Amino acid sequence: MAPEQKKQPHGPFRFRDDPRLLSALMTAPAVIYIALLVGIPFLLAVFISLSDATTGDPSLDYVGISNFRTVIGDPVFRQSLKNTFIFTFASQALVLVMSKILALALMKEFRGKWLVRFLILLPWTAPIALGTIGWLWMFDSIFSPMDWVLRYVGLLGRPGALLGVNSNLYWLGIPGLAMASVTVVHAWRMLPLATVILLAGLTAIPKDILEAAEVDGAGFRQRLFSIIIPLLLPIMSIAVLFGVVFTFTDMTVVYILTRGGPVQSTQVLASWAFFKGIEGGDLAQGAAIALFLFPVLAGVATLMLRLARRTEVN
Amino acid sequence: MAAGRRVREGFAVYPVVTFFALFSAFPFFWMLITMFKRDHDLFSPANNPFLLNEPPTLEHLDLLINQTHFLKYLFNTLYVGAVVVLITLVVAVPAAYSLARWAGRWGETLGIGIFLTYLVPPTLLFIPMSRVISVLKLHESRWSLIVIYPTFTIPFCTWLLMGFFKSIPRDIEEQAQIDGYSRLGAMVKVVLPLSVSGLLTVVVFAFTLTMHEFIYALAFISVSAHKTVSIGVPTELVRGDVFRWGSLMAGALIPSLPVAVLYTFFLDRFIAGFTLGAVKG
After folding, report:
1. Fewer CB within 10 Å: C terminus or N terminus of chain A?
2. How far is A73 from chain B, CA to nearest CA, in Å?
């Protein structure tokens, strides 16, 4: 760390000690970096989506909104759009309920808490691509440990068994089950983040409010629903908004588990844009598909700004 | 404290945390046991899959290390991570400091604006980014990642550092200025040494964020020897339809653990950044 800090004192002493000038000079590199490598690519995405660019012929010839027409007319796109929303909402609903329960449990002191904390955080702290590989092996069509347990308790793989006579469920091979599997992995991944955010919120609730309520005879459930949850609302919405952004725009889970299959039943916008644009070489359509992520992102960003402003006023 | 604990006694804590710990950590346990299992044991559906039914083996680890580019992936990850951390520090530290100290309310707004660019996902930008990369002639190079990754580490780390610098009392700098330091001098000589833990947080997060990244790396690097762990392990240890599960699991678990430990240590700061200051203290 030392070298780049030491560089600064020499040169900049030439500048007058003017905070505005200094401020502009010191902020500029960050702003320029972001403008060049986020702002320009974003505009470029719009141009590409309005062109006929492919990997073979990358020149940007304007073709108007025809890519968007083609994309919307494509049943796979509509399936992907629907799936993206289903995965996002289903997994976030799961996360919301589970993180609430888990955060309340983690408020207590108990032995081995540090270990529990480490284990619970793993899905978020370990690289998602690598964690998902673990799931891929757990969802294996023959050697799935879940199937083994179900067979062991007699729910699967014998005549009259509740889940069928096949010895396996084929977690990633049957459309509905594959969607459920992808949803669970998304929820698994986002649970730690939501939990720690909620935990931060819970810790910040003043103890005397809860104690006063208890003195007034409010039971646990009453305290939960009339005090804890209303006070947590802003921070819960932040947790959900992050969850929405990360799930809505993700393609890692789908790419590793199913590559969109079986028969596109788990395809999402992001993965479909990747398959079309990068693997299929149709840059223009890929860019058009990816741009459909933008309205939701913009909405989430607006909500976050509003939340941030509200908490500032308070 | 005692009252606070009593207030929340609504359910049994151990069953709940045990269930969630199992749910969260099981895939990693599954990796651990798979990497030491003999293939014969692994592929016998009748065997209890949660136990080692035959003596453990190191053959998967041996294959991973000696017959794949795994060590190369680790090196690439460290190399890309280290350079990205440097770029992030050089750009984010001054920006965060000036926004936190000198820019007032306007600085707060610009800070949030910069943070929000962190939410622009790789999946929205990979196609135009591939154009940028080919203009820069960085295709298939690790430098393509080094150039791109700061687009998300800079916003996030600037935001984290802003919060950190704000928590340092202004009096310290004012005193230093009275003692004859310029504003910049006060920052470099007085504030930065006090911010070591904040800077360390930034180093850790910039590094883990780059290590977690999957999509840009997948889109821009297909030469095996240039891959990072995040994409090397999922794409190179599968040959056609043949999954080398033992080595695959070893390759997934080994890089995950250190980064998870590191991350867990610094997590509270990360959350303080994520909650946009909605939670104080």
Report:
1. C
2. 21
Note the CATH number of domain B69-274: 1.10.3720.10
DSSP-derived 3-state class of residue B125: helix
Identity of the amino acid at A79? Q
Per DSSP (E only), the strands in B173-240 are: 238-239
Q: From the list A196, A234, A256, which residue is nearest B234 (CB)? A: A256
Q: A111 burial class (0-12, 13-18, 19+ CB within 10 angstroms)?
A: exposed
Q: Which residues of chain B neighbour A121 with C-beta distances below 8 Å?
A: 24, 260, 263-264, 267
Give me Rg for the CA atoms of chain B: 23
The domain locations on chain B are 69-274
Query: How many CB atoms lie under 10 A from the CB of residue B236?
Result: 17
Paired tokens of A255: 């790419």
| Residue-wise pLDDT tens digits, A59-117 | 888 898 899 999 999 999 999 999 999 999 999 999 999 999 999 999 888 888 889 99
A75-313, what's its fold?
MetI-like fold (1.10.3720)
CA B185 to chain centroid, in Å, comes to: 32
- Residues in chain B with CB shorter than 8 Å from the CB of A255 are 218
In tens, the pLDDT along B100-148 reads 887 777 888 888 889 889 888 999 999 999 989 989 999 899 999 999 9
pTM score of the predicted model: 0.89
Q: State how far the alpha carbon of B20 is from the alpha carbons of A191, B16, B48, B181, in Å.
A: 10, 6, 23, 53
Of A34, A128, A210, the CB nearest to B154: A34
